[in-house]
């Protein structure tokens, strides 16, 4: 029998998942990790407290090459789905707001243009968006239409050679920062996507304040009041809900990885704290109850990372289905929430301060669990796939 490897166990990579990555994937992961530790982690608590994210961060993320990094051409890196996932994991280990900025830019706004746009639209917007010189947002959710996008009220009607849009969109990440909004509207020809540049008459944004979650992120309402657009503003390839739903699936995939990153950050904070916090003459990590917490958190973080990696390999192989992504988002975000809550207990009173990342991740994940499809909706998707019959709504 071959001898067991003498390599020591790494508590931060308990299952040696690093060994499953290619050298190129590790290099990409390490570059993004270094960026996050230098440019995000030192400031994330301040951004959270001040409820802002600097617009210039988009240019830095563009230089890093993560904006639309999984898309081909037009200044995009054309990286693998797994590499993109690894980047999302490191970005969210910094803060969910930063990963959201990247996801909305690349997986929603840029992907919509890349997949459904005309060549002229791609040439006009994608290179600048990849560089972070232009920011995009994605207008699908409405005040009365979240989990049921088919009931959207925003509409677009023909008026001569133009289109006229009316309606409202709500909970839009990057809304007031965006140079262009991808807005989905009901038309006589089905659900269509429109590119609405900032400053278009009748188009306005209003930021949502007093958030207790995702504070280091701009969240806005979009108002379209008689917005007149030329026919060239329509995404020609999308004529149904398949258009926006395809974009959502891209963003949900990134969340699968991002949630694992947030969970890992909480575990690392709990390990560092518990091994240095002395009570009753010894580190609290030496007590059985704390070790049980650490073991449970390590299990969930490793399980979430393995699930994300498996889905990444499936996506690269072309075998990933939306139901798989739903399982990943449902499982990983719920697991990350439990890890964050447990880490908060390990840190005691210090766990509620922004000196440590745990409470910030914990409150952020309360948004992540419901955006891009609530946990309930993803449970119905998975349940329906398992049962072989959709859930009854009536």
From TrEMBL:
Its EC number is 1.3.8.6. It catalyses: glutaryl-CoA + oxidized [electron-transfer flavoprotein] + 2 H(+) = (2E)-butenoyl-CoA + reduced [electron-transfer flavoprotein] + CO2. Its cofactor is FAD. This is glutaryl-CoA dehydrogenase (ETF). Residues 246-383 form the Acyl-CoA dehydrogenase/oxidase C-terminal domain. The keyword Oxidoreductase applies. Keywords: FAD, Flavoprotein, Oxidoreductase, Transit peptide. Residues 137-227 form the Acyl-CoA oxidase/dehydrogenase middle domain. Pathway: Amino-acid metabolism; lysine degradation; Amino-acid metabolism; tryptophan metabolism. Belongs to the acyl-CoA dehydrogenase family. It comes from Prauserella oleivorans. Residues 22-133 form the Acyl-CoA dehydrogenase/oxidase N-terminal domain.
